[in-house]
Amino acid sequence: MAGDPKPISAAARHALEQELADLRDERRLVAGTLQDATDVGDQADQADQLRRADQLDRLDRRIRDITERLRQAEAAGPPSTDVVGVGSTVTVRFPDGVQETLQIGEAAEAFDQNLVTSDSPLGRALLGRHAGDSVHFDTPDGPSSAEVVSIGDVQSA
């Protein structure tokens, strides 16, 4: 992860901490199934051992990535409430009058319907904006726009 440390929202921090705990539990289970190399029998056993060792490597990489991301987020401090950035909570109003509160994140989570990635068209348009700014972005249905209502805590409609 290059550049300055980026803050993350409380919800994103919680999700990463939960994923980290789950990965550590999974790692303990996988590590417990690995056998001493001298105890490995036939080729099928050896192939199973290699698969588990690969799985352990994958888990270790993800654990390192999450740990580093959480460390960077801690160094960055809380998300700004002055300008939209990664980790910001942003309330926007669309041309039809609908207001939505969104999180600007680094990666999409299937379960989080209010997360907008920083590299999506809307996410890119919102980065660096202030409350009151209008943004324009492309959608699959054509050009669209929104107004930044607030940055930070959820605003009541």
Automatic annotation (TrEMBL):
Domain of life of the organism encoding this protein: Bacteria
Coiled-coil boundaries: none
Domain Transcription elongation factor GreA/GreB N-terminal: 7-74
UniProt keyword Protein biosynthesis present: yes
GO biological process assignments: DNA-templated transcription elongation; regulation of DNA-templated transcription elongation
Keywords: Elongation factor, Protein biosynthesis, Transcription, Transcription regulation
Domain Transcription elongation factor GreA/GreB C-terminal: 80-151
Gene Ontology terms for molecular function: DNA binding; RNA polymerase binding; translation elongation factor activity
Location of the region described as Disordered in the Swiss-Prot/TrEMBL record: 134-157
Official protein name in the record: Transcription elongation factor GreA
Organism: Streptomyces filipinensis
Gene this chain is encoded by: greA
